[in-house]
Amino acid sequence: MTGTTAPTTSEQRSVPRLRTRFTEEFGVEHPIVQGGMQWVGRAELVAAVAESGALGFLTALTQPTPEDLVKEILRTRDLTDRPFGVNLTILPSITPPPYAEYRRAIIESGVRIVETAGSMPAEHLEVFKPAGVKVIHKCTSVRHAVKAQSLGVDAVSIDGFECAGHPGEDDIPGLVLIPAAARALTIPMLASGGFADARGLVAALALGADGINMGTRFLCTEEAPVHRRIKEQVVAHSERDTELIFRPLRNTARVASNVVSREVVRRLDEGADFADVRELVAGVRGRGVYESGDPDAGIWSVGMVQGLIDDIPSVDVLVHRIVTEAAELISNRLAGVVH
Questions:
Q1: CATH number of this structure's domain 14-225+317-337
Q2: pLDDT, tens digit, for every residue of 164-215?
Q3: Measured between alpha carbons, how far is 57 from 114 in angstroms, rounded to an integer?
Q4: Which of the residues 43, 166, 228, 274 could staple to 76 if both were Cys, CB 3.0 to 4.6 A apart?
Q5: Is it the case that residue 68 has pLDDT exceeding 50?
Q6: Is 299's pLDDT higher than 80?
Q7: The pTM is what?
Q8: Angle at CA 27, nearest 5°, toward 165 and 127?
Q9: What is the DSSP string of 134-202?
Q10: What are the percentages of helix, strand and coil residues in the chain, rounded to 5?
């Protein structure tokens, strides 16, 4: 229609706004984040998350080179003009990725929000902060969150023991970890691990968080670049269908329970070392799971929260549903408790 502005999806649906320190300081509509996921955090998913009013992150190291990351950022911008970020995970390695080149690619591409994970992000902050890039650091303990805050990060994402991927070695679930971190921090905090719906969002806000970070729930959406059979597996599985691998190596990771992860657990419990399972846990095999749809092709990350997932919606439907139902919970059920 000439002379009018088409309403956004949120305007068409009258999606309620849940304002928190996170939404205000990071300029996003909803206090929901799609964190970086290896092989999954690509343009089609991240753009859909951005269009929904949430904040999505491309996964830098999914892209084989910094030049490829630049192309993926441009591809995302072709799909959305809303804010999105890039995840840059810092892991010990004999041959580390060219982090300086990835940082340069992020800054020169005009990305203004970065999610860091793994080791402390001091070297990244020295470059990102002067360039005006906001940094969210993922932590699995209060002490690490406090340390990240002291280094100058703009927010932290605190991962409870329920999370997919690396939950740390303290085994503290979110119900304790989130309020403990909220008590110790002054910067915005996202709750991560075990979140999939409106009940989780409301609970996180009540526990002191300023929003939620979801991985497994976003993996199980129409736009996630993952074979549909894997999404159907997530829907079919319960909260009991994960394995904790690398426990004896003090590098615990929560992954889907399958023939490969169970074999890894068996070997390590019997005294094997990493060399004895290296081939089983190779990243290329995990990538093959998402591409082929064979859930037993390799190791792949999934959280206990899969027990709360029973559909494969579009990202827009998912985010709208979570925010709308959260607002209803707050306005109706919780408000009705007080007399």
A1: 3.20.20.70
A2: 999 999 999 999 999 999 999 999 999 999 999 999 999 999 999 999 999 9
A3: 8
A4: 43
A5: yes
A6: yes
A7: 0.94
A8: 65
A9: EEEEEESSHHHHHHHHHHT-SEEEEEPTTSSB---SS---HHHHHHHHHHH-SS-EEEESS--SHHHHH
A10: 45, 15, 40
CA distance 125 to 119: 12
Structure tokens at 112: 């203004």
Mean pLDDT score across all residues of the chain: 94
End-to-end CA separation in angstroms for the chain: 49
Report the pLDDT averaged over residues 30-53.
97
Tokens 């753009």 sit on residue: 47
Query: Where are the domains positioned within the chain?
Result: 14-225+317-337, 238-301
Band (pLDDT 50/70/90 cuts) for residue 13 is low
How many CB atoms are closer than 10 A to CB 208?
Answer: 16
Q: Are 139 and 126 in contact (CB under 8 A)?
A: no
C-alpha neighbours within 13 Å on the C-beta side of residue 122: 5
Q: Are 33 and 157 in contact (CB under 8 A)?
A: yes
Q: How far is CA 174 from the centre of its chain?
A: 15
Supply 82's token pair. 């809303």
